[in-house]
Amino acid sequence: MKGKIFILAALTLLLGLVFAMPAAAQSTCGGVSFSVTPIQGVAGSQATASGSGALENYGYTIYWDSTSGQVLASGTADASGNFSTTVTIPSDATVGIHGIIFVGLDQNEGSVECPYVFEVVAATGSGGVQPDAYTSARTTLPSTGAFLLPAAGLLAAGAGLLYRRRRR
Prior knowledge:
By secondary structure, the protein is α+β, with helices and mostly antiparallel strands. It has one domain (24-142): Single Sheet (S-adenosyl-L-methionine-dependent methyltransferases), CATH 2.20.130. It is built from 3 helices and 9 strands, in the order H-E-E-E-E-E-E-E-E-E-H-H. The protein has helices spanning 2-20, 133-137, 148-167; strands at residues 27-29, 32-37, 40-41, 46-52, 59-64, 71-76, 83-88, 96-105, 111-120. It has a 5-stranded mixed β-sheet, with no helix packed on it. Helix 1 (2-20) packs antiparallel against helix 3 (148-167). The protein is flat, with a radius of gyration of 22 Å.
């Protein structure tokens, strides 16, 4: 009996940890996965825009804020539909939330506009350089605890089973 309870508790804990892990930060649109790293920086800084699922050997364009906005980069997806390019955040970008948008075709030749959120932060220190290591090293969105809900449900179900077993 104690062995079954231990196995149930260990399984519940393992599932809780899996669901509590933050997901990779990316946008998925029409079969195209698109991400930008880092997710924030100062105006004039560089970021890497990359993804997969684009139409093989076909061109794409990366825009700032809207598809009628400034073109940050353009390129051609490789033979597997993967793409990666360096973009420069406009030097006149205002502090706040902006969009970096992938425009191209997915592997079914459907048109795709896939936005990604980028935060422009204020430059600090001498020379306008952002010295905050947290800003430049952070490439995923923080976990807000939303993934704990399934783990809490599993924990409650396990407790209910234990309670029911003990009443017998």
